[in-house]
Design a protein that fits this description.
Layout: E1 3-12, E2 17-27, E3 33-44, H1 46-64, E4 69-74, H2 77-83, H3 95-104, E5 110-114, H4 121-135, H5 150-153, E6 188-190, E7 199-201, H6 231-245, E8 258-264, H7 288-304, E9 309-312, H8 316-329, E10 333-335, H9 352-358, H10 360-368, H11 381-398, E11 403-408, H12 410-421, E12 438-443, E13 449-456
Parallel strand pairs: 1-4, 4-5, 8-11, 9-10, 9-11
Antiparallel strand pairs: 1-2, 2-3, 6-7, 8-12, 12-13
């Protein structure tokens, strides 16, 4: 079962006054925005606009996957408390809206959380855009709820990715020889405020969307988003985005997948030098840069609020990274030896160039055959894959239906991605993985897997 986070906000300028709302649907497994909705609703109160925002967010989520579970986050204490059943709904304008919202999903599949306004900036911005449009309308007329906002503000968004100099091996060795490379996480947008709203696919893979914390009044303020879409492109975008936002190949009755969020450890002193650093070497700790990277990823994961457990490789750099993240999330760190890095034998601590100079025949054989071990009896990629697959099976069984953070290394992350895609062993040489990057794979009960994210470094920006 897919899980969404809905962030919603609404407001009016005058209370009552020109009003509008914005809603964002986020994939809980990846933290990526999959849909947006906003609408100008003419003259209304703050609270009515906020309920309209909630309703639009739930309907948009339902249009993406009616079997999903939803966690709603709003900065309106009133709406959160009333929809949670702790406060009574007295105002006649809000009762029918609350009733409609309660019927979109079964009650046991929706939860509510109050968040500070500064953590609700995305929905707040969309609401402000809608209120700007409402000011230009006749006070007695509201924009049709089915109006797409493609032409008025459907700016494409993207998950940022890092780019850095590639190693000579094109990123094959986990080691510290692997440098950052650009990959992106797809992000789509829904541009209407009804259950039929459909998303537009992310089309700017080089843009950056950094995330950004006592209860305040139930009105909203915001920034502005903008953009434009032609009618022809919008139709094609919607069709493509439906495929991106679909819950996957697995049928609904398989239940929620085990979701493995894969975090490569932060930098060590060997990382910028691009030296082989596996499980048979000096076992370095994080550098100051690496610790800061760990703190940033911890904040990003805390904002998502989806990680339920943390498991780490036994090596020092992963345990230190995991400790920083787990402390922020209020979780313990469990260690699994299957997540350790490959042993690079006599190549530990050397650069790729040094290995080529000292052991050219061994290196060429290793690059050509995953069954070949590094010089001095290290671990082959073939052997490592068997170990990593066993750890995967063990963890998927232990965390069925849950989201678990695995803090590990380049070879385990690349291997898990390769196996999930059914790619050949040489695919390891065609992936780059940045320090402190996030990737995500969901594993279903029928044995199928779905890669949802790879090498995301937007949290480091």
């Amino acid at each position: 079962m897919r899980e969404f986070i809905v962030e919603a906000d609404g407001g009016s300028r005058g209370n009552p006054g020109p009003a509008g709302y914005g809603a964002v649907v986020i994939d809980a497994a990846t933290g990526e925005t999959v849909a947006e909705a906003n609408e100008s609703i003419g003259v209304a109160t703050n609270n009515v606009a906020e309920y309209r925002a909630l309703l639009a967010g739930l309907r948009t989520a339902h249009s993406l996957d009616p079997t999903a579970t939803v966690h709603v986050r709003m900065d309106s204490k009133l709406v959160v408390e009333q929809m949670s059943g702790r406060w009574k709904i007295k105002h006649p304008d809000m009762k029918p809206l609350a009733l409609e919202a309660s019927r979109v999903f079964p009650a046991d599949r929706v939860t509510y959380e109050w968040i500070p306004r500064e953590r609700n900036k995305h929905a707040d911005r969309l609401a402000n855009e809608a209120m700007d449009a409402a000011k230009t309308m006749d006070a007695a007329g509201a924009v049709d709820a089915a109006r797409p906002v493609d032409a008025a503000g459907a700016s494409d968004r993207a998950s940022a990715s890092d780019t850095a100099e590639a190693s000579d091996t094109a990123g094959a060795a986990d080691s510290e020889t692997t440098a950052a490379s650009a990959t992106t996480a797809a992000s789509t947008k829904a541009s209407a405020a009804t259950p039929n709203s459909t998303p537009n696919p992310n089309s700017n893979p080089n843009s950056t969307s950094p995330s950004t914390s006592p209860p305040t009044s139930d009105s909203s303020s915001a920034g502005v988003s903008g953009g434009a879409d032609s009618g022809g492109r919008a139709g094609a975008d919607r069709r493509a985005a439906r495929a991106v936002a679909a819950p996957g190949w697995a049928p609904a009755d398989l239940g929620a997948p085990a979701t493995l969020v894969l975090l490569r450890h932060g930098e060590t002193p060997l990382t910028p030098q691009k030296r082989f650093s596996g499980s048979g070497g000096s076992d370095p700790s994080l550098s100051d840069v690496g610790r800061e990277q760990a703190r940033r990823v911890a904040e990003a994961l805390a904002r998502r609020g989806t990680v339920q457990a943390v498991v780490a490789s036994p090596l020092a750099r992963t345990r230190e990274t995991a400790g920083i993240v787990a402390a922020r999330l209020g979780l313990d760190v469990h260690v699994d030896d299957g997540l350790r890095e490959t042993d690079f034998g006599a190549w530990e601590g050397l650069t790729f160039g040094e290995v080529r100079e000292r052991h050219p025949e061994d290196l060429n054989a290793w690059l050509a055959d995953p069954a070949v071990e590094p010089t001095g009896g290290g671990e082959s990629f073939e052997t490592a894959a068997v170990r990593i697959a066993a750890a995967r099976d063990r963890l998927v069984a232990a965390y069925a239906g849950r989201t678990v953070l695995l803090v590990t290394h380049v070879t385990p992350v690349k291997t898990l991605i390769r196996l999930a895609l059914g790619a050949p062993p040489e695919a390891l040489f065609r992936m780059e993985l940045s320090a402190a990057s996030l990737s995500t794979v969901a594993y279903y009960a029928d044995g199928n897997a779905s890669v949802r994210l790879f090498n995301d470094t937007s949290h480091l920006r």
